[in-house]
């Protein structure tokens, strides 16, 4: 049975492990290994996760099956001071995909967004990420394209997707 839990600082190691296990299969055919390594270090350092939690208001949910954590989501209410909940991250272990864990996380974030009076959930997704079809099935629509430049000449080529609540 799949169960949700709110993550705490003590869970950052697990969150990092899931990211490091899921990114190569998610982005391996899209980004270079060097860019994947750079972005994992950038987004999942202890310092960044603490800053996201303590200063930016991000919250983390874990989805567990028994003693095993299958994935996580990171979200923020009142994104950009609007009635919007931002889904910053959602990743599952490769072997957990197709078990309903992603849908459980999306539904939980949606329920929390509604409780917070959000009218929209937004997210960014790489334009070539297979998860786009999953997001569309759960009610998200592409609203724009965005290119985000990073250091070392790396860039993120994303769709911005939204779901009206």
Automatic annotation (TrEMBL):
GO molecular-function term, one example from the UniProt record: acyltransferase activity, transferring groups other than amino-acyl groups
SUPFAM superfamilies: Acyl-CoA N-acyltransferases (Nat)
Signal peptide extent: none
PROSITE patterns: GNAT
InterPro entries per record: Acyl_CoA_acyltransferase, GNAT_dom, MshD_Acetyltransferase
Top-level taxon of the source organism: Bacteria
Residue ranges constituting the N-acetyltransferase domain according to the UniProt record: 2-165
One Pfam family this sequence matches: Acetyltransf_10
Protein's UniProt name: GNAT family N-acetyltransferase
Lineage, highest ranks first: Bacteria, Pseudomonadati, Bacteroidota, Flavobacteriia, Flavobacteriales
């Amino acid at each position: 049975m799949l169960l949700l839990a709110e993550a705490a600082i003590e869970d950052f190691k697990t969150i990092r492990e899931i990211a490091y296990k899921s990114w190569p299969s998610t982005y391996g055919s899209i980004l270079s290994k060097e860019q994947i390594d750079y972005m994992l270090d950038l987004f999942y350092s202890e310092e960044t996760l603490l800053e996201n939690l303590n200063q930016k208001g991000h919250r983390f949910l874990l989805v567990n099956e028994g003693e095993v954590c299958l994935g996580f989501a990171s979200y923020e209410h009142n994104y950009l001071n609007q009635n919007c909940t931002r889904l910053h991250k959602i990743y599952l272990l490769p072997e957990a995909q197709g078990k309903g864990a992603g849908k459980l996380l999306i539904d939980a974030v949606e329920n929390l967004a509604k409780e917070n009076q959000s009218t929209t959930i937004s997210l960014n997704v790489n334009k070539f990420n297979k998860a786009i079809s999953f997001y569309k099935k759960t009610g998200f629509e592409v609203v724009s394209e965005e290119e985000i430049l990073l250091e070392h000449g790396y860039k993120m080529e994303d769709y911005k997707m939204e779901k009206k609540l």
